[in-house]
Design goal:
Structural class: mainly alpha
Oligomer: single chain
Number of strands: 0
Length: about 325
């Protein structure tokens, strides 16, 4: 959930306060909340593998449960119906919701066509796509180190996609959908930064509503076994809804770099759950490409964390 993390929020520490923030009880609570969100999100790939429904039906029920849950939460917290909050946000909320809906749909279909590791690692390039779009559309400065990180991450993505191209057409489609997912969510991220005065959290409810409406004509919602319906309820409420709320609460209390570092836990745990339960192992070339992407993300995030400490008063 990079989009939420990058949106300016009251009380969010800036990069120069990283060292001080990590020592406060609020920051420790934020770290636990973001870690909890990462654990919730990491279960998505396993659930998608376990349910016996098709991708459209999975997308429909996941969206229905997530929309009802988040809509109720925002209604209670905002003290007014969520559709009123959509209207207050106007066109930017609708566009952000459309980008998130496309990202969510691509996530389900990517998992249906390629390895879990490919989907999760390729989607983790989203923050750097957002950085590139921010430079192109908003004129935001991109540090040379970040450009280098983008290049390494792109090389890793090429290795992963090329291995799928050499394997099967279905796997290639899955990888491309994962990249489209990262790009669509990155677009939502940039739009949120473009309109910091608008409360964008209710866009998640609109996004899941749009996803469900798009999936409905192609889904078979009544042909779902009770056990699958329970898994789909957890997919929408626990994996997406609770994960989203935990991330929103935790990201307010941490510097962005630390939030990104903790969020990588989901990229590690997702393939691990599928490997432990279903014995799905990624190909060797996927591991090489994934290692490049993950190393680039980790190095850049650690540099963001260490940099302010090195420049702190009294330090060389």
């Amino acid at each position: 959930m990079e989009a939420v993390k990058r949106a300016p929020m009251p009380g969010t520490p800036d990069a120069s306060s990283t060292r001080r923030a990590t020592a406060t009880p609020a920051a420790r609570r934020g770290a636990l909340l973001v870690a909890g969100a990462a654990v919730c999100w990491s279960s998505g790939a396993l659930i998608a593998r376990l349910v016996g429904t098709g991708p459209w039906t999975t997308s429909f029920w996941r969206s229905v449960f997530a929309s009802l849950f988040l809509g109720l939460v925002f209604w209670v917290v905002g003290r007014r119906p969520v559709w009123v909050q959509w209207r207050e946000g106007g066109r930017p909320v609708v566009i952000v919701a459309a980008c998130m809906a496309l990202s969510s749909t691509c996530f389900i279909f990517s998992l249906a066509h390629t390895a879990v590791a490919n989907t999760l690692i390729l989607m983790s390039t989203g923050p750097y796509v957002a950085g590139l779009l921010g430079w192109l559309l908003l004129g935001e400065r991109v540090a040379p180190r970040t450009w280098l990180t983008m290049g390494v991450a792109m090389a890793g993505a090429v290795v992963m996609v090329s291995s799928s191209y050499a394997g099967s057409r279905g796997a290639l489609i899955g990888d491309l959908l994962a990249i489209l997912m990262a790009c669509s969510f990155a677009t939502a991220t940039v739009l949120i930064r473009r309109h910091p005065e608008i409360r964008m959290a209710p866009a998640a409810v609109l996004a899941t509503t749009l996803t469900g409406l798009v999936a409905l004509p192609l889904a078979d919602p009544l042909a779902v076994a009770p056990a699958d319906l329970l898994l789909l309820a957890f997919f929408g409420i626990g994996q997406f809804g609770v994960g989203f709320l935990l991330f929103m609460a935790g990201a307010r209390l941490l510097p962005p770099a630390e939030t990104s570092l903790i969020g990588m836990l989901g990229v590690v745990l997702g393939p691990l759950w599928v490997w432990l339960v279903l014995s799905e192992r990624p190909a060797a070339t996927a591991l090489v490409g994934g290692a490049l992407i993950f190393a680039a993300l980790l190095a850049n995030t650690l540099a963001d964390l260490i940099g302010p400490r090195a420049r702190a008063p009294g330090k060389a």
